[in-house]
Amino acid sequence: MDASRIAPNRRDFLRLGSALALAGLARPALALAPPTGVVATTTGPVRGYLDRGISTFKGLRYAAPPVGPFRFRPPQPLTPWTEPVSAVAYGHPAVQMYARPSGEPSSALGKSLLGVWPTAQESREGNEDCLVLNVWTPALDTKVKRPVMVWVHGGGYAYGSGAWPTFDGGNLARKGGVVVVTVNHRLNAFGFSALEGLFGQDYDSSANAGLVDLVAALEWVRDNAAAFGGDAANVTLFGQSGGGAKVCALLAMPAAKGLAHKAIVQSGPGLKAADREGAVRTAEALIAELGVARGDAAALQAIPAAAIFQANYAVQARAASEGFHFTQAPIIDAQTLPRDPFTPDAPAQAGDIPLLVGTNKDEAALFMASQPWHGSLTDAQLSQMAAAVAGPKAEPLLAALRRARPDYSPTYLMTALATATGFTRDTLILAERKAAQSAPVYMYRMDWETPIGGGVYKAGHSLETALMFDNVETCRALVGPGPDPQTVADQMSAAWIAFAHTGNPNAAGLPDWPRYDASARPTMIFDVESRLVNDPDPEVRKALQS
């Protein structure tokens, strides 16, 4: 079967969402689940429910709703309460920005994944009132200090949620004796609009409001971890894709210093902040599209969120014709992010933070599977496309990839080249710069290939999230049938748990895994039979670094 006819495009695949939970398909007996005891948080008591022995709390607020006068501003403190609040359902995802506002998948395979990644349902339910987090803990025992793992979702800076079934933290908590936290924060125009200088000092950090939200969530963890059986002095910050880039940014934010003690960056090496000029032009165009005069903060606060949502699409659509790059992503500013995260070096404040970092073998297979040329690319077309992506490095890089992947067709060689230039190169740079500091770095690559869609995605982008969260059974639509995905999940989840406990991912069932250095470059290759390889695909690396 022609893969382009069954595979969702990049946005389809990444927007598929938490339909199981939203449609009531996940744990239909939730209403009968026994409640937890009451937990006294710093702002008021909360009560969750027990799920197979795991105390589960969903939709916990960590800051006031960022609406009305708080829109685009830093997160504000919550008003305390005295009666127990029920925390048994996910809170709102942030307002989502997809290629199509409906968020509907366009292919059969995309629709089959509706229970794994975001969907039109989440697009409809997105809301400014999104500053919520979720907690899974083995026990509400304040005498035991368990490691805390705080997950930052992907989706770039435009969409995503900590409530996707892929990210359910119950199995990690159950298996590893860890407290798992997943977070929602502001996205797209609501979280990353560069309004500095347009509406007064209250808006000076608006370009990075989504990151400041994450700092507020980490402060909530610091203040409340003990109440959930967690150790506020042992927090691992981990994220994938855009979430990995957000982790990189947080490691360079002075306000986040001391709030995380270990970090994991999965397929999201964020070396630099976004272009300030593009961000400012985008924000100015958005304000003009909304008809708001500079300085009229009251008008900005009064506009319905839906109007901002629609105006943002209009600005995105005309950006190219007006000669600016549509940019809603973190930028350098004196208030929140005073430097590029990992350029020209690793930030000094992250010097004592161990790092686990890596990629998947075929990241770009996810993005390219629905292209019209997928499955039929010729060698001549490959050379032309490679030159457009890699410039003068294209031919030596292709030659190295042909030797490293002798069984790959021109279609998958193009995928491999896009993976190398879009993920591998910056991950190597990130690892090298971080390894120059005192804390250890550990490198991995996930090579296991999912069989879904006839193997169209290979070891594609985001595949590892279902594995390291140990959520194989609820993600069979992504990982496929049989015992192999669980075998890989057992190894990856054990490594992530070990790292959260000790800052070292060595775990039973894995070969010895030494810390990374720029000489030997030891890398754990995760597969059904995982192995440790020094400097995997060295010719590819040398072509990238030439």
| Main pleated-sheet profile | 13 strands, mixed
Question: Any low-confidence stretches, pLDDT <50, length ≥5?
Answer: 1-29
Q: Supply the number of structural domains.
A: 3
Query: Class by helix and strand content?
Result: alpha/beta
Individual helix count = 21
- What's the alpha carbon Rg, rounded to whole Å? 22 Å
Number of beta strands: 13
CATH architecture descriptor text of the largest domain: 3-Layer(aba) Sandwich
Shape: globular
Helical content (DSSP H or I, runs of 4+): 25-40%
CATH hierarchy, class of the largest domain: Alpha Beta
The chain-level mean pLDDT equals: 91
How would you characterize the overall build of this protein?
The chain has 546 residues and is an alpha/beta fold. It has 3 domains: 29-276 and 330-350, Rossmann fold, CATH 3.40.50.1820; 277-322, no CATH class; 366-545, Rossmann fold (3-Layer(aba) Sandwich), CATH 3.40.50.1820. Helix content is 36%, strand content 14%. The chain contains 21 helices and 13 strands. The protein has helices at 3-6, 10-15, 19-22, 108-112, 120-125, 170-176, 188-191, 209-224, 242-250, 276-290, 297-302, 305-322, 365-368, 379-390, 394-404, 410-435, 452-455, 463-468, 476-479, 484-502, 538-545; strands spanning 35-40, 45-51, 54-61, 85-86, 132-137, 146-152, 179-183, 230-240, 262-266, 355-360, 441-446, 522-526, 531-534. Strands 1, 2, 3, 4, 5, 6, 7, 8, 9, 10, 11, 12 and 13 form a 13-stranded mixed β-sheet that branches. Helix 10 (276-290) packs across helix 12 (305-322), helix 15 (394-404) packs antiparallel against helix 21 and helix 16 packs across helix 21. The longest helix has 26 residues, at 410-435.
